Amino acid sequence: MAKFPNFLIIAVLLSAVKCTDVGACLSENPCVCDIDEYNKIDLTQVAQQLKDDEFLEDFDGAGNSVYFRGCKDGTFNATARKLNVNSTNPVFSGSLMIVNTTYVTFNYTNGTFYNTTAFNGVQVGKSAQIKFTAVEGQKSSHQIVYKSGEKVIARIELLCSAYDKSFIKLINAEGTDPTLTFTSRYACVITHHPGMSTGSVLLLIFFISVVVYLVGGCLILYFIRGARGLEMIPNIDFWRSLPGLMKDGIIFLFSGCSPTSITTPETYDRI
Length: 271
Ligand SMILES: *[C@@H]1O[C@H](CO)[C@@H](O)[C@H](O)[C@H]1NC(C)=O
Ligand SMILES: *[C@@H]1O[C@H](CO)[C@@H](O)[C@H](O)[C@H]1NC(C)=O
Ligand SMILES: *[C@@H]1O[C@H](CO)[C@@H](O)[C@H](O)[C@H]1NC(C)=O
Ligand SMILES: *[C@@H]1O[C@H](CO)[C@@H](O)[C@H](O)[C@H]1NC(C)=O
Ligand SMILES: *[C@@H]1O[C@H](CO)[C@@H](O)[C@H](O)[C@H]1NC(C)=O
Ligand SMILES: *[C@@H]1O[C@H](CO)[C@@H](O)[C@H](O)[C@H]1NC(C)=O
Known about the structure:
Keywords: Membrane, Signal, Transmembrane, Transmembrane helix. This protein is of the alpha+beta class. The chain has two domains: 92 residues, no CATH class; 153 residues, Distorted Sandwich (Cation-dependent Mannose-6-phosphate Receptor, Chain A), CATH 2.70.130.10. Helices cover 24% and strands 30% of the residues. The strands form four sheets. Strands 9-10-11-13-12 form a five-stranded mixed sheet, with no helix packed on it. A four-stranded antiparallel sheet has the order 3-4-7-8, with no helix packed on it.
């Protein structure tokens, strides 16, 4: 029996454990990040008590303001909020608005006086653009990122709080990568323990299969081939070589799955 495919199977089994991506979500959903089977972050309820045109707000001293309502788009009427946008339509739809003030100054030219006009720039983040990611350098912290193509509109770090009220805070509005924090109980990781998970069921099926295989194999070898003692164990040669195969599988896996990595003299002999 060729040993080569056997250690490949072991490598595949091990890679299922090793290559599971930590930090990212299992689901692609603007509201819910399933971190794993038991843990998730759910922003669905952030906008629950807000009217369609209501947002959580924050301002800094430099004329920047931010409006956020979780993962549900709302209506943002700039005129009603006394903002002066350079647009024929001052009404925006989104779940995040970052507003700045852009001053356009005219001067005296040939005896004509032009007034100073201030326009507000509005960056709109739509809920459909939300992606959950781990905060760089902090595996256990999560953030949501509004992305339009490759351009990042804003990053919002999620801060878990037991307090009933939720807050949005503008940390840095400068540059091309505005940073905010969202402090809320909806920013917490929720842990739930359902009955038996898919993983457990698969493990159980696996062990039952192993038992059936061993017991069935022993009986068949005992009665049909008249095997006795250790020879009753089915595929005894394979099980004897398993430790070596495991080693090859691990070397193969951790060397970036390069087949050249297993051409040690030992392995070569085995193959
Ligand atoms: C936006 O607000 C202004 C001022 O309150 C109001 O006149 C206008 O009708 C509003 N527009 C929409 C689409 O609600
Ligand atoms: C206002 O919008 C018009 C048309 O989009 C543009 O030509 C103009 O430069 C804008 N002004 C400012 C101050 O952004
Ligand atoms: C005043 O405005 C004119 C026309 O826009 C421009 O050419 C000139 O450089 C400005 N002067 C100053 C001092 O800003
Ligand atoms: C100012 O007026 C002079 C003379 O009338 C003219 O030649 C010049 O082009 C004007 N400059 C501007 C910026 O309008
Ligand atoms: C410029 O603005 C001032 C104050 O807002 C106002 O009193 C004045 O009438 C304006 N002038 C022009 C030419 O728009
Ligand atoms: C203000 O917002 C406008 C529109 O989003 C943007 O083009 C401009 O660069 C912003 N200005 C500053 C100082 O951030």
